[in-house]
Write a structure and sequence with these properties.
The protein has about 220 residues and is of the alpha+beta class. It contains eight helices and ten strands. The longest helix is centred in the C-terminal third of the chain and has 15 residues.
Length: about 220
């Protein structure tokens, strides 16, 4: 947990500890990266404005070698700032001031895993240039392993579980992030864009993750 406001940090720590979470604090972005490497936490809370390395840069560095869920905290509320945080690799974005119940709900959402159970969901996908093993959470594109963040993986898994069918924006958001979501279209735009960059042979002309205008997205299992 990294926040630039000591009072907010104290309240968050007390709330999280009171809900049985173990909390590790860092003074700044550089310290956070070291502690994350040493402690391997289940989730990271990052303030957008920190001394030294800022929240976005810290998140980018973290994403180069870790899939840990990241929530960005910020006083900025513009869509541009939210998109920048998601582009940097964040799983969620909370605007200050926020209530502790909202924070706890966002943490639970960030820690959620695959929206379809191993029994009911798909186990694998195999095409000429894409292989997905949902049991081991491993993906190969043209024979090369590709890493996804937890939310990217869960989003892909849900789309694949509904292969061939258009999935509405709200359904995707609520399946992957939780029932409190549904009005964050910028989340899907960013995550779908990132997924396409990672699994599509030509992200500019996707053949797997297709846009359904005014509806949502569809996974084409055959790549068409």
């Amino acid at each position: 947990m990294v926040d630039d406001d000591p009072q907010i940090r104290r309240v968050m720590r007390a709330t999280l500890v009171g809900h049985k979470y173990e909390v590790i604090e860092a003074r700044n972005g550089e310290d956070a990266l070291t502690r994350i490497s040493d402690e391997m936490p289940d989730l990271v809370l990052l303030d957008m404005n920190m001394p030294g390395m800022g929240g976005l840069e810290t998140c980018q560095h973290l994403r180069s070698g870790s899939e840990v869920p990241v929530i960005i905290l910020s006083v900025r509320n513009s869509e541009k700032d939210k998109v920048a945080a998601l582009d940097a690799g964040a799983d969620d974005y909370i605007t200050k001031p926020f209530g502790m119940e909202e924070l706890l709900a966002r943490i639970r959402a960030a820690l959620r895993r695959a929206p379809t159970s191993p029994e009911s969901g798909p186990h694998s996908v195999a095409t000429a240039d894409l292989e997905i093993d949902f049991d081991t959470r491993r993906i190969h594109v043209k024979g090369k392993e590709t890493r996804l963040t937890p939310k990217e993986f869960d989003l892909l898994r849900y789309l694949v579980s509904q292969a061939g069918k258009p999935v509405p924006h709200r359904e995707l958001l609520q399946a992957v992030w939780g029932p409190d979501y549904g009005d964050e279209p910028e989340y899907l735009r960013v995550f779908i864009n990132q997924l396409r960059k990672k699994i599509e042979p030509n992200p500019a002309k996707p053949k797997y993750i297709l846009t359904e205008p005014w509806v949502g997205y569809r996974f084409a299992a055959g790549g068409n």
